[in-house]
Amino acid sequence: MSFLRSLRIPSCFPDFEGGDPSSITVNIDPEYGYVVLTSLLGTMFLNQYLSYQVVAARKQHGVDYPTLYSQTNDQYNCVQRGQQNFYEGYGFSLATSLIGGLQHPRVVTAGTSMYLIGRVFYMRGYASGDPDKRNHPMTVLGVFGRLACLGAAVSFALHQLEVV
After folding, report:
1. How far apart are CA 100 and CA 51, in angstroms?
2. 3-state secondary structure of 27
């Protein structure tokens, strides 16, 4: 794998061996750009889609702000819950993508894409008003996508620790 770009990061290790102790050079594969696009832009567009679904459900079911969940309308609550579920896992997904992508940009780009597609199907199923439909067969893509990104992040960590 050819690393064409380098980034110098200030070092917090006073006894750093092998060069300037005030900084560390990190080589970043040019394909990391795809990781950034899918992890940041992809999730931004997904978030916009999910937010639009909640706004539309609010209008359709007459649920005014600042009410988060309705006391009387489960259909609206399913849409709102679909979006909230995305937020609950967003930090983990973003971290594993951005870290794992440093070493495995193609795996993470594919994994994040799978995650995004799975989240759309999850929301569409949940928004139907039947919570059981959130487990659409295509949502398994999201699970495998997250596992791919987690595996890439763990692999990166193990390589940094020189365990493998």
Report:
1. 28
2. strand
